[in-house]
Amino acid sequence: MPQGGQGDTTVAMTIRDVAQAAGVHVSTVSRAFSASHLVKRETLDRVLAVAAELGYQPNETARALTTGRTRNLGLIVSDIANPFYPPLIKAAQSYARVRGYQVFVADTDEDVRTEEELIRTLARQVDGVVLVSPRLANDVIARLGGDLPFVLVNRQVPGLSAVLMDVAHGAALAVEHLAELGHGHLALVAGPRGSWTSAQMRRAAGRAAADRGIRFDVVGPNAPTEHGGITATAAVLRTGATGVIAYNDLVAIGLIEGLHDRDVRVPRDLSVVGVDDTVAGRLNRPRLTTVAMPTAPAGRTAVDLLIQTVETADTRPSTAQTTLATSLVVRDSTATADPSAR
Amino acid sequence: MPQGGQGDTTVAMTIRDVAQAAGVHVSTVSRAFSASHLVKRETLDRVLAVAAELGYQPNETARALTTGRTRNLGLIVSDIANPFYPPLIKAAQSYARVRGYQVFVADTDEDVRTEEELIRTLARQVDGVVLVSPRLANDVIARLGGDLPFVLVNRQVPGLSAVLMDVAHGAALAVEHLAELGHGHLALVAGPRGSWTSAQMRRAAGRAAADRGIRFDVVGPNAPTEHGGITATAAVLRTGATGVIAYNDLVAIGLIEGLHDRDVRVPRDLSVVGVDDTVAGRLNRPRLTTVAMPTAPAGRTAVDLLIQTVETADTRPSTAQTTLATSLVVRDSTATADPSAR
DNA sequence: TGGTCACCTGCAACCGGTTGCACGGACGGT
DNA sequence: ACCGTCCGTGCAACCGGTTGCAGGTGACCA
Question: How far apart are CA B139 and CA A106, in angstroms?
Fold first, then answer.
């Protein structure tokens, strides 16, 4: 049975097939696809028509070999299943596609060695990499960044581009919110060691508390998971704080669960603020008051920055920094400091 | 300042650099990396040593051009941010990496046209594609599958490999569970049109209910989201059912929210069973009784099957089918049928 | 001593595009 | 009529590997 429809790429067409069919040299076909302004209008139309009829599609691999650009990007996160990431991944991926790039998503499993290995592996097949909240040391990142365009998200390393979310401001908003509710003693449930975000939160929240003469304790470091929140419960209670800011929604949820098991009610006995504004926080009962992080815009912006860096083949890595705004979403996990308590 | 460490790939080494440094022909270096059994032990050691010293890494793109195999896979899902997918993506990605493959993750945004376009785009740069719960029509999938190895997840198309989750059994378990709780009238909140999973559930639950002489209604189709659950609320109440099985956890959660707004309490007034066992269901209050889906194993298995198909270059697409078991996780959203009600 | 064979390695074509360079013709200016 | 320019196209080298084929060497056997 003969192959029916035109455009059916059952057997791959090459540039030479098109050239022959259109009666031009291969270089003309090549130009028609990658530098069409160099081809006379009339020739261009004919070549494209023939190509379409033959179902020709340029071979990306061959193209990548000569140009040295793969039109692939890497996106490295610590844990795909952490609800903070999917919106970012989704936005990054879909925006990249609009710009004609594909993205490899990779997961470090919260492991620093895996992170480095992943970067090295990916380095050979992508034009650039977005690193979200990397845990590697500054100098390691900087060194790897010498070989390949990087854009960091939620991490600052001198000389590298970054997209930052204004967690400092978010943390300050959280403190302000709790202060207005009358809480005179706050605690921060910190994130994992090496987390830039956690360090930012700590500094900003500490300062905001100090400005108001509010006592401020830090508990941690903790794993950035529900379990991390549960295990921090005892230490949180020991501080005596009545208002708590957690590293992220998951930790906040774990903490609330831990508190629940000890018959400490949220928000009646204790107010808890999360960070990230994930689905998890919206679904939790009580619905979580949280600092909303612009994850989707961050994914989009990071890819935008990366493509820009890649396409302007400046040897010097562009070192643009973008900071995206955060905001506070007040829901049901915070309330006025328990008047009957003290 | 001279470049320090050996192994630093500041300037890319090629196979010819290695050949020259090791005093052998390029083909020998090539064999050392891709068919080492063809090279004398002594020569092999020397070549590898020189390569290591020079920091040589084979260029995947060049390799792909001649071999025709990219060692890249595609993974297409309808919505990365749907909590059903991240565990599957994570497992697929990490397993692929173990096998020496990278994976492109792409998101169709629940749109059929995007789905097809995505497959066509990806087709040119991957060795095979995993399609999770595709919404395309059978014949379209079959046709596209002629050009490229496919593995389907939660979808059956004659002649294509698939990894299925036993939702039929899961749905039956849910019915059984509700029946044992004394519910005599059940409703299914169906998923989106074209969903294989939804069709399976409907059939299996309907049969299980019939077997027990239980009345069974279907509401839908609905969007597979929280919002879909909310909008289905009125219709669910209209059926008069006291036990409900929702298409997935998100729909279940939305439904519970919708019921809550109408002062119908779960599980006191109505029992709800979700499907998927996502984080969302675990975090929801009441904690969701749900059918656990083996998402991570499915991701791993699909990739395994796909790689197997790809590496045994059988022209005929292997047509293996694997069905993974599901189970019921009983939590707090189901209870005995309200005795005071009727 | 000659022949067979297995094992290594080199040679060169090839994968499917891209791109610097050269060439021919059309056009405009003097 | 002559020259300089610009435009469009062809030519061929090249990107970095892979692989079929051939030749050389040494071992083993008769």
Answer: 33
Q: At what angle do helices B249-261 and B226-239 cross, to 10 degrees?
A: 60
Distance of alpha carbon A153 from alpha carbon A164, whole angstroms: 6
pTM of the model: 0.90
pLDDT for residue A317 is more than 70? no
Chain B residues lying within 8 Å of A107, measured CB to CB: 90, 93-94
Beta strand A161-165 with A150-153 is: parallel
A218 near A186, Cβ under 8 Å?
Answer: no
Nucleic strand D near CB of residue B26 (< 7 Å) = yes
B93: nearest CB among A62, A85, A107: A107
In whole angstroms, what is the distance from residue A93 CA to residue A87 CA? 10
Q: Are A126 and A74 in contact (CB under 8 A)?
A: yes
Q: Which domains does chain A have, with CATH numbers?
A: 15-58 (no CATH), 71-165+295-324 (3.40.50.2300), 167-293 (3.40.50.2300)
Both tokens of A48, joined, read: 């494209």
Separation CA B321–CA B155 (nearest Å): 10
> What are the residues whose beta carbons fall under 8 Å from the beta carbon of B21, sequence distance 6 or more?
B50, B54
Structure tokens at B111: 């749109």
Peptide bond before B267: cis, by omega within 30 degrees of 0?
yes
Query: What is the tens place of the pLDDT at every residue in A260-298?
Result: 999 999 999 999 999 999 988 888 888 999 999 999 999
Q: Which nucleotides of C are covered by protein (CB under 7 A)?
A: 7-12, 14-20
Nearest to B189 by CA among B160, B145, B230, B149: B230
Instruction: Answer whether A125 sits within 8 Å of B109, measured CB to CB.
Output: no
Contact check, Cβ <8 Å, B106/A93: yes
> H or E segment at B243?
strand B243-246
| Chain segment A49-107, per-residue pLDDT in tens | 999 999 999 999 999 999 999 999 999 999 999 999 999 999 999 999 999 999 999 99
Residues forming a β-bridge with A275: A291
Cα within 13 Å of Cα(B257), Cβ side: 20
Q: Which nucleotide is at minimal CA–C1' distance from A58?
A: C17
